[in-house]
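Working notes for the structural subgroup meeting. M.R. asked for a predicted model of this chain before we commit to crystallization trials. I am recording the input and output together here so anyone reviewing the notebook later can reproduce the run.

Input as submitted:
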Amino acid sequence: MSLFEQTLTPVTHDLGQFEVRRVLPARKRTMVGPFIFVDQFGPAQLDLGTGMDVRPHPHINLATVTWLFEGAIDHRDSLGTFSTIRPGQVNLMTAGRGIVHSERSPESERKNGPRLFGMQTWLALPDGREEIDPTFEAVTDLPIIEDGRARAIVIMGELWGERAPTTTYADTIYAEILLEAGGAIPLEEDADERAVMLVAGEASVDGHDLNQYELAILQPGRDMTLESATGARVMLLGGEAFETRRHAWWNFVSSRRERIEQAKADWREGRFPKVPGDEEEYIPLPDGEPNTVTYP
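Returned structure, recorded in token form:
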């Protein structure tokens, strides 16, 4: 009997200089715990003098989580925040009732050809908290668990007896796990819903092999062991199951369709705030029926 409740294969978007693999939302499943959107991008070496440029765009009723393995990204938002995201730092941007942000490669990185390798995820905000005030935090003081040939960084929530200081709005677990050859780490039954993604190398859960970039949703209520014979990088994510359905359209997530319609009108009519230092460009509201973020 498989330990995997489901396995989700990502849709790959080739953006020329790097690829983005989107595994949530999927037709078979829209959420794992509060996670409603999971992108993995890179590894990639961009051309000299170029960079990633995600122009200003809006969000509502969600929180974005950016985690890098390699490279750097300049984050700017309509709160006036400026932060350069680097490996080991989690950037949590809570949109709440509405925020606008941009993500671009730093100028200092462009001259040598930026590296890009990391994760971009969205968390749906729980009932009663969707319209909270927007906030931003960058956290570097994250717990690190080391046990022989296994090393894990707790990005959000509590895992292996350690809790990250990153804000959570619903019960959330999120971690990066690095296994050396012969390394292993327990995956305890500590969340309603859990999933793992093999980002690099090879690994298995209780003898069941993981396929690279797939999201393997683990059966609930069972302790398991993640291990690797040759070395691996794996992401663990999940948390409490949401009882109320969430709708997603472009960069907007909400429990109410009419709230998304209002956000569409607000962006179209220029009622969202501007991003200080990045006011000249923006991503226009798309035509048709997109269901996820638009990249440049």
